[in-house]
Design a protein that fits this description.
The complex is a heterodimer. By secondary structure, chain A is mainly beta. Helix content of chain A is about 10%, strand content about 45%. Chain A contains 13 helices and 61 strands. In chain A, the strands form 15 sheets. Chain A has a 22-stranded antiparallel barrel. Chain A starts with a strand and ends with a strand. Chain B is built from 21 helices and six strands. In chain B, a hairpin with a 2-residue loop joins strand 4 and strand 5. The chains are: A mainly beta, B mainly alpha. At the A-B interface, strand 29, strand 31, strand 32, strand 36 and strand 37 of A face helix 1, helix 2, helix 3, helix 5 and helix 21 of B.
């Protein structure tokens, strides 16, 4: 150690050659604690910071307090000529030595070349960087020389040259990086300086999932973010809820910010996963309040990949895969089916099945039709991605395009998409730079959802797939060629509610045309004007234009166009075009300064404007005479419904944020935003959203500094208010319209439509607010090998924008009111560990779990609870399945408690008849009709019968906890990714079982699930499945079919191999990696349906309902990625 | 580029200091009218008036609910399905859809009338035309209240348009006051609306319609539970007013219903009817369920697909005397087998579908919905009301006018010329009580399944007894087990519907009907 003294403040110049030296410098510069702080701060603050990380030589100038400098002999400190400045250099400059030329390649663990990596000779001022192929050439002084390899985000590696002349190096990426840049609203920050609760997605892991859109792979990746699929249809979007549902009747979707463009309704499928650089989820109010009005549901910030300084880097990735349904439902065999039919109605069954001398036994072993096998197929996926990225100091560009195709596991369902994106960053002058971001996507989802609302349960696709009989009794009656089963319709037995719309599922699906096309175009221009060192102005202008085309055509061979009673529309079709466009202008001014070296202040102020336009035009045509022309024959039919709609809204906001940082130890963030929305009447237009956060990096306190295993420790606390304005554009105004159904015909002449009030406006309508308190703790131990993040939050949403029920005596059913209060509180844990870290083998894990508890605190004035039906079948539509009650979570399942079946003990035997004992309650049916084996419910009020007074809370459709567990194993050039995801404690109402495990409609010739074989009978009295015709009534919800849908899924499994460069280079590529990626590999669950992750047409009020959902698929793909 | 920055800054400044922000945020819709912007012309008033009529034909009222769920009530028929709950089998709670949605629909119609009546002064137009619109709206509003009060008893009486979603707690007005309002309001409407001759069809509210319904209102007021017996005089007066106009019975009973099926009008017999139109396909949604639900069951689309949801009771079948042509029209003597008609055996009574609304007569049959109209007031009803009011007002034997009115209905039933006195079916010289008993039966025979029987029985104070007698009657018959459900289930509380539970939760000033 050498010491240098100086007596007065002195300006200094650091001349740092390499990263390795940095700790040395810190150690040596004991002369002044402030200096070291200042140095580190200055590093992180400096625009040259990235340069440091790159190991680039740079100069840093400043002023030093008087004092002493103690420095290692490896460094070279000297005073400048005039003694005014201090020069610190890397140790002794290399002397003249013999040079050996070394060449080689620097790669990452995946075998991808690292372009721009620094290679230098230890102790000698000699350095080179690798080229775009990762190749370098350097001369070293001799065999004893040590080469050092460094690259941002990777660990340094030293290699003694020895006798080698070619040295290929594989760098290992560093553990959890506190210096990681996190993209926030209107700016970036370092992970260590975060004050709010922010989750980031490991994009590398996410990319291992073979999915069409990133949202499909998001589940379980971030604590507190619930991502679930309604069903498994290709191209369908995921439902994302961050920290529980705030809103009862309105959207709970988060706000998306893509490259700075805020979007309330986002098309995840419009962006290629490969184009995404980072996904950040802002969870607490401190992080979201800068988005004020729209931040209450959380914010997902997506940044796309930009160009970089490098020669053009061309990357191609191709992937091919197959899909299979996770599970098929077992249905009864022909023998079991005929046996059931004979129990149902012996006479009719004999007529149908016991002809030509056949008996029941004749059906033993008969194969029968397997309709599921005909409806399902092996699906396929294909994805081609090509990108070119590169640039120089003044122009950086990134261009990418992708082509995706998926053929779903149900015949005729498909998803096709093409995308393109162009990002250009251009320096216009020393102070001004511009970036242009253009993206286009065109996606088509083909094929109907089997769960699309059809008003009658028998008109759903899966009902037919499972229920269509496996055999006919008639010789020569084949079912595969006709749309209808000629024996099925039986008017004597059919209530109109149980009317049978069963069709041949295969023929119907083959002929149905349902397509939804989405085209997105988004131009976005951003200008940065660095006025001086402290001020910079950012002006952003952008637009998104979205065009939706919905096409439907139902010909006479489809379930919705077939000629039969109740189909008043005959062959019908429709085309509906809608457009959503929005433009935004954002202007922000940032001020950054550091005072006395330790007080770092960043101020942001800005003004933004955004406007939305919506229109929808379309028409339906019915009774189409010439169906062969398909959609082009629409004009020949009778005009049906026409659609014409326009709407618009605007938003203007002022925003501000102050960030204060004292020695990276105490961090304060405060933000304030004012939002004005056109969705409210003038006097309620503006609302104000403040937030504040404080973080204390305890690890920088002396008492923790000496605990060696503590790498970093930070306590965070934040509070803030965010808003929600997701109501209709003009909900505050009363309106009148001319609905198609409202009119009258006088004297038998053509009706006229009437003008009627259709909405009761609320001039007092105002913003919904959510206040959120967040307490967080981040702990990093053992040099970051173990990192724990814990967050606890409580958020209360008040002045809820509730589409509130109002008395019918007003003439209306609902109106928007700021009424109601909902609370969500929860805990989130994320644990990231590096378990093994050897040269050839690494194992890292990420585990997260989150708990959320949702509670309704108030509803509409005086309302104790809100009952909600699920709309799926006309026989059940009037019956509530959900109750939202004060003091409990939103939308609990509601109905009768199932109590098994009536047993013989419940009856007195009178003259061979079973007569229900007087003290045994009925099940809602007429007492005299109840027989042993009939379904039984709990008579809660003890009045001897079951009616709506006995309905009670049955369960909850929302999980108690959920999470994910990701593991990455790297062995040499292999990488194995294993990702588990689970959801625990939610229930699903498996309505399929009403139709197919008890045949509530008592429909004739309807096959049932195989489980129904075990139904109650006098020979099988232990069974809890009601006997034939002893099922629950139509329109009765009960807990028999409410199932625990907890699951644990091996969601993603992938194995990749990076082909060694020696082979790759021979064929003219710079890298080549191959992988096999599997999605939805294994699911552990007790749920009896196809998949527990199901919730058709789900909203906050109607969670967890399963009926005829599109099945989830297991995907196996093979991927090849190469760069040129 | 610098310009763009300048524009951005400029916009901010405008918004900060000028009125630009408010202008930017002050979006207006080009897509709809607010109520304040409407009701400016005569044409707009007429278009709005259609909206007051519209609820009549909705599934919640006459298209579906009243005609096939409320209308099966009492002793005439039973709901021909083994499962399902609802008012048709007296198995429902205050949460039931068939209680809730009609209530909703009725108040929706009332609100539409309230809005129209509050704005009817706005257009510059002839007073006579304005009065017609006001009169029809007033009458319809009163008619909706009539349905409410006769089914729920005390109900909130809301007469002003709703302005805001808050502050809408309204207490129930006693039934007597609601009836008084209906009575006065209809009398006022009667002076304003046009005659049925001027209108030319029975789809619209005419003077005769108002008069006839006034007679019905008065009978309901005079009977149980109000027992305002003075109203028998008013009932007689209003029925007589109808009889003064040129109404006449259609000589052929079945032709009345064939006319409904064919959307043809006989303004002599049919004074007011619910209009249905079309097939349900295409641009309008004005087709109804009447024939589809109430017709003779068949899946044959040429005959007209129908569910046959109501079947007769044996008691009702036997109520018809030999030679009464109404029986085999009201109760279908046959069923369809394919396209052919198969007569029921003489003992097969309970399997008979009701036959008033036969789709085979419809002109343009769609697969599910139909244009078949539903009667709200027929002249025979007026005649029978007159006869009843006459003896009840006098509390004596029938007057000759009452006998003649009664006999017209009876003659037609046996295929005799209605207005030719002296037939062998004529009754004369009966005492008060016998005549009343005869009227009660005659009303049932004449007006079966037209949605009136339950209310007649209630106002006569006979409902509970008739229903429990039916239970005994049916238990010894060959009826299917489920046919007795309604009769087993009925209780005193069923004289009134419960206030919908949803309404109770949202309007804290409401009270519930007894025993609900």
């Amino acid at each position: 150690m050498t010491t240098m003294f100086f007596e007065k403040p002195i300006s200094y110049v650091f001349h740092i050659m390499n990263l390795k030296l940095m700790p040395k410098l810190f150690k040596c510069m004991k002369f002044c604690n402030e200096l070291s702080c200042y140095v580190s701060n200055a590093f992180s603050d400096s625009p040259l910071y990235r340069g440091v990380k790159l190991g680039v030589v740079f100069l840093l100038a400043g002023t030093l307090q008087a004092g002493a400098v103690e420095y290692s002999s490896g460094a070279d400190l000297s005073l400048s000529n005039n003694n005014a400045s201090l020069i610190i250099k890397e140790g002794p400059l290399g002397a003249d030595v013999q040079n050996i030329s070394i060449t080689g390649k620097v790669m990452n663990e995946k075998g991808e070349p690292l372009s721009g990596a620094v290679v230098y000779v230890k102790g000698v001022n000699r350095r080179v960087t690798t080229d775009s192929r990762g190749d370098y050439r350097i001369s070293v002084p001799g065999e004893n020389a040590v080469l050092v390899f460094s690259y941002v985000g990777y660990e340094l590696q030293e290699i003694k040259v020895g006798s080698q002349t070619a040295i290929n190096v594989t760098l290992m990426s560093t553990i959890q990086n506190l210096e990681q840049v996190v993209v926030m609203g209107y700016g970036t920050t370092l992970k260590k300086d975060l004050t709010g609760s922010v989750g980031t997605v490991n994009m590398e892991d996410l990319m291992e999932a073979p999915v069409a859109s990133f949202d499909e792979a998001l589940a379980g990746r971030i604590a507190g973010v619930q991502v679930s699929a309604d069903e498994g249809q290709p191209g369908s979007a995921m439902k994302i809820v961050i920290r529980g549902q705030n809103s009862i009747t309105q959207s709970n979707d988060p706000l998306y910010v893509v490259d700075g463009f805020p979007m309330e309704d986002f098309e995840a499928a419009g962006i290629s996963s490969d184009d995404i650089e980072s996904i950040t989820v802002l969870k607490d109010a401190s992080a979201t309040a800068i988005y004020g009005a729209r931040g209450a549901n959380g914010v997902i910030v997506i940044e796309t990949k930009k160009g970089m300084v490098s020669a053009p880097k061309i990357t191609y990735s191709g992937q091919l895969g197959v899909q299979n349904v996770l599970k098929k439902m077992e249905v009864m065999s022909p023998y079991e089916f005929v046996k059931y039919q004979m129990e149902r109605n012996a006479a009719a069954a004999a007529q149908s099945y016991l002809t030509n001398g056949r008996t029941l036994e004749s059906y033993q072993g008969v194969a029968g039709y397997n309709w599921q096998d005909r409806l399902f197929r092996r699906g396929s996926t294909m994805n081609h991605i090509l990108s070119v990225r590169g640039g120089n100091e003044s122009t950086k560009y990134a261009f990418s395009t992708s082509l995706y195709n998926q053929d779903g596991v149900i015949i005729s369902s498909a998803f096709d998409r093409i995308q393109g994106r162009l990002v250009v960053d251009q320096k216009l002058s020393k102070k001004v730079s511009a970036s242009l971001n253009l993206s286009y996507s065109d996606g088509v989802v083909n094929g109907p959802s089997p769960a699309v609302n059809a008003s009658q349960s028998s008109n759903y696709l899966m009902f037919s797939a499972w229920g269509y009989r496996p055999i006919t009794g008639s010789i020569g009656l084949e079912l595969e060629d006709d749309l209808f089963d000629p024996d099925v319709y039986d008017p004597e037995e059919t209530d109109e509610r149980t009317f049978d719309f069963r069709v041949n599922p295969v023929i119907s699906t083959q002929h149905e045309i349902v397509s939804r096309r989405v085209r997105l175009f988004s131009p976005n221009l951003n200008l940065v004007y660095n006025i001086n060192k402290k001020f910079s102005l950012n002006v952003r202008g952008g637009a998104t234009l979205r065009n939706y085309i919905n096409q439907d055509f139902h010909n006479s061979l489809t379930r919705r166009g077939a000629p039969r009673p109740n189909n008043v529309n005959g062959v019908n079709g429709s085309v509906i075009n809608s457009e959503r466009s929005s433009w935004v202008n954002e202007n922000t001014l940032t001020y950054k300064n550091t005072f006395n070296r330790v007080h770092k202040l960043t101020l942001l102020g800005g003004f933004t404007m955004q406007a939305y336009n919506y229109n929808r035009y379309g028409y339906q045509s019915v009774l189409i005479p010439n169906e062969d022309f398909g959609l082009s024959g629409l004009e020949e039919g009778t005009p049906g419904t026409t659609y014409a709609e326009e709407s618009s809204s605007t938003l203007a906001s002022f925003l501000s944020r102050a960030e204060y940082d004292y020695r990276s130890k105490y961090l304060l963030t405060a933000s304030f935003r004012a939002d004005g929305s056109s969705k409210f009447a003038r006097h309620n237009r503006w609302s104000y959203f403040p937030s504040g956060a404080f973080a204390w990096r305890m690890s920088r306190e002396p008492f923790l500094k000496n605990i060696s295993f503590v790498h970093d420790a930070k306590l965070r606390i934040s509070y803030g208010v965010t808003g929600n304005n997701r109501v209709g554009d003009f909900s505050y105004l009363s309106s009148m319209n001319m609905p198609v159904a409202d009119g009258y015909s006088f004297g038998g002449i053509t009706p006229e439509r009437s003008m009627v009030p259709n909405r009761l406006g609320n001039s007092q309508l105002k913003w919904e607010n959510t206040s959120q308190l967040n307490l967080g703790y981040d702990l990093s131990l053992f040099k970051g090998k173990l990192e724990l993040n814990v967050d606890a939050y409580r958020k209360t949403t008040y002045d809820l924008l509730l589409n509130a029920n109002i008395p019918y005596t007003t003439g209306f059913a609902t109106s928007f009111k700021n009424i109601g209060k909902v609370q969500n509180q929860g805990l989130e844990f994320t644990l990231t560990t590096t378990n093994v870290r050897k040269k050839d083998f690494r194992w890292t894990s990420n585990f997260n779990i989150s708990f959320n508890n949702n509670k309704v605190l108030a509803l509409t004035e005086g309302e104790e609870n809100m009952l909600t039906p699920m709309i799926w079948d006309s026989g059940y539509n009037g019956v509530p399945l959900y109750i939202t009650e004060i003091g409990r979570p939103i939308a609990m399942f509601y109905g009768y408690i199932w109590d098994g079946v009536y047993t013989l003990n419940d009856f007195d035997e009178v003259g061979g008849n079973y007569v229900l004992k007087a003290n045994v309650p009925s099940n809602g049916a007429t007492r005299s009709t109840i027989r042993p084996g009939n379904i039984k419910f709990k008579d809660l009020n003890g009045d001897g019968t079951i009616d709506s007074k006995d309905a009670t809370i049955l369960g909850d459709g929302v999980p108690k906890h959920m999470g994910g567990f990701a593991n990455n194993f790297t062995y040499k050039r292999f990488r194995l990714h294993v990702f588990f995801q689970w959801s625990y404690g939610q229930q699903v109402y498996n309505a399929n079982r009403h139709m197919l495990e008890e045949n509530v409609g008592n429909r004739s010739h309807l096959n049932q699930f195989a489980s129904y074989v075990n139904r109650w009978s006098f020979d099988n009295q232990e069974s809890l499945i009601p006997l034939n015709n002893g099922q629950s009534h139509y329109g009765v919800y009960n807990s028999r079919v409410l199932e625990d849908a907890s699951y644990l899924r091996l969601k993603t499994l992938s194995l990749s191999y990076a082909v060694p460069p020696t082979y790759v280079n021979k064929i003219g590529l710079s890298t080549l990696s191959l992988s096999a990626n599997l999605q939805n590999v294994i699911t552990w669950t007790n749920y009896s349906g196809m998949d527990p992750e199901v919730a058709i047409r789900s909203t906050a009020l109607t969670p967890g309902f399963d009926y005829s959902a599109y099945p989830h698929a297991r995907t196996v793909t093979f991927r090849l990625t190469t760069t040129f | 580029m610098k310009n763009k920055i300048a524009i951005g800054i400029f916009a901010s400044i405008i918004c900060l200091f000028g009125t630009g922000c408010e202008k930017f945020l002050g979006t207006t819709s080009e897509d709809f009218y607010t109520p304040d912007e409407y009701y400016e012309t005569e044409a707009q008033l007429n278009t709005a008036l259609l909206g007051v009529y519209d609820p009549l034909g909705s599934t919640d009222l006459y298209s579906y609910n009243i005609s096939s769920f409320w209308g099966t009530e009492a002793d005439e028929g039973y709901y021909a399905r083994s499962t399902g709950d609802g008012p048709q089998v007296y198995d429902y709670t205050s949460a039931h859809t068939r209680i809730r949605t009609p209530w909703q629909k009725l108040y929706q119609g009332i609100h539409r009338a309230n809005l129209l009546l509050a704005s009817a002064h706005k257009p510059d137009m002839s007073e006579s035309s304005r009065n017609v619109i006001i009169g029809e709206a007033q009458f319809l509003r009163a008619f909706y209240y009539f349905i409410l009060v006769s089914n729920w008893g005390d109900v909130p009486l809301v007469l002003d348009p709703t302005k805001e979603p808050t502050g809408n707690n309204v207490a129930r007005t006693p039934a007597r006051e609601v009836y008084d309002f209906i009575f006065e309001e209809m009398k006022e409407a009667e002076r304003k609306v046009r005659t049925i001759q001027a209108i030319g069809h029975s789809g619209r509210v005419s003077k005769s319609a108002v008069q006839g319904v006034l007679a019905r209102v008065c009978l309901y007021m005079a009977g149980y539970p109000l027992m305002d017996v003075d109203k028998y005089h008013d009932a007689r007066y209003w029925a007589a007013e109808v009889m003064k106009s040129s109404h006449a019975l259609n000589p052929d009973y079945k032709q009345i219903f064939i006319n409904y099926a064919r959307d043809e009008y006989d303004i002599g017999e049919s004074i007011w009817e619910v209009e249905f139109w079309g097939t349900g396909a295409g641009t309008y949604r004005e087709a109804g369920w009447v024939g589809v639900r109430l017709g003779i069951a068949t899946t044959n689309t040429t005959l007209g697909h129908s569910y046959g949801i109501i079947r007769t009771t044996e008691k009702y079948y036997r109520l018809f005397e030999t030679g009464d042509l109404r029986r085999d029209w009201t109760i279908a003597p046959y069923r369809y087998n394919g396209t052919s008609k198969v007569n029921h055996g003489a003992t097969e009574i309970y399997v008979r579908d009701i036959g008033k609304w036969r789709r085979e007569y419809e002109l343009d049959k769609s697969t599910s919905l139909s244009a078949q109209n539903f009667p709200l007031l027929r002249y025979s009803d007026v005649l029978l009301m007159f006869a009843e009011a006459d003896i009840m007002a006098s509390n004596a034997a029938p007057s000759p006018e009452a006998e003649e009115a009664f006999n017209q209905v009876r003659r037609r039933a046996f295929g005799l010329p209605p207005t030719t006195p002296g037939s062998d079916q004529d009754v004369s010289g009966m005492n008060h009580d016998d005549f009343l008993a005869l009227i009660k039966d005659e009303r049932s025979r004449e007006l079966g399944f037209e949605g009136l029987r339950k209310y007649d029985l209630i106002r006569w104070g006979d409902f509970l007894k008739v229903m429990s007698d039916m239970e005994i009657d049916i238990s010894t018959s060959n009826a299917p087990v489920y046919a007795s459900r309604a009769f087993q289930n009925v209780q005193p509380k069923h004289l009134l519907f419960p206030i919908p539970v949803r309404e109770m939760a949202l309007n804290r000033l409401l009270t519930q009907n007894p025993e609900w």
